[in-house]
Amino acid sequence: MCVFCGVTAPVSHLDRALANGRGRVKLVTGAIWGDLYQIYPSAREAKLGGGGVGGPLRFLHPSCGTKGWRELLCVVMATWFFKYRAGGGVAQGRPRVRLDGDLRAVLLEAPGRCVPYAVIEGVVRSVKETLSSQFVENCKGVVQRLTLQEHKMVWNRTTHLWNDYEKIIHQRTNTTPFDLVPQEEGTGVTVRVMKPLDAAELSLETVYEKFHPSVQSFTDVIGHYISGERPKGIQETEQMLKVGTALTGVGELVLDNTTIKLQPPKQGMPYYLSSVDFHTLLQKQESNVRFWKILTVIFGFATCAVLFFVLRKQYRHHQERRHLKQMQDEFRQAQERLMHEMNMEGGETLKNACVVCLSNTKSCVFLECGHVCSCSECYQALPKPKRCPICRQAISRVVPLYNS
Question: Treating both helix axes as pointing N-terminal to C-terminal, what angle do 101-109 and 11-19 enclose, rounded to 10 degrees?
Answer without folding.
Answer: 140
